[in-house]
Description:
Number of helices: 5
Helix content: over 70%
Oligomer: single chain
Structural class: mainly alpha
Largest sheet: none
Radius of gyration: 20 Å
Number of strands: 0
Shape: elongated
Order of helices and strands: HHHHH
Amino acid sequence: AERAEQKRKDTIERLARQAIPAMTRLLERYHATHDVPINGYKEDPATALRSLPLPELKRELENLGRGTDEEQSLPSESIEQESAEVIRRLIETAASTGSLAGFLCSKLLDSPP
C-alpha cells in the first residue's frame, strides 16, 4: 500500500513537471495579449475601478476587510461621490496596486485558456 501511494505521488509529480512548459507558454501568450491593460491596472487602478459597478466595488472593499458600515459612512449626495470614496478606500486599503490589478484582471479580462 505504501509503495502504491509513493508510485501515485511520483506520477502526479512527473505529470506536473511535464505540464509546466505548456502552462508557461499559455501564460506568456495571455500576458502578451493583455500586457497593456494589466500594466495600466498596476499604474493607475482608479481609472479601471471607475468602470466597475458600485456594488462590486463595495464587495471588494468588504473582502479586503474594510466594510462600509455606519461608522465608516459613505457620502450620500451622489453615486459618483460614493463611488469615488469607495475607490479611494480600495486603493488605500489594498496591500499593493498589484493586488488591485489582480482584482481588475479577474473582473475585466477574459480568463486564461
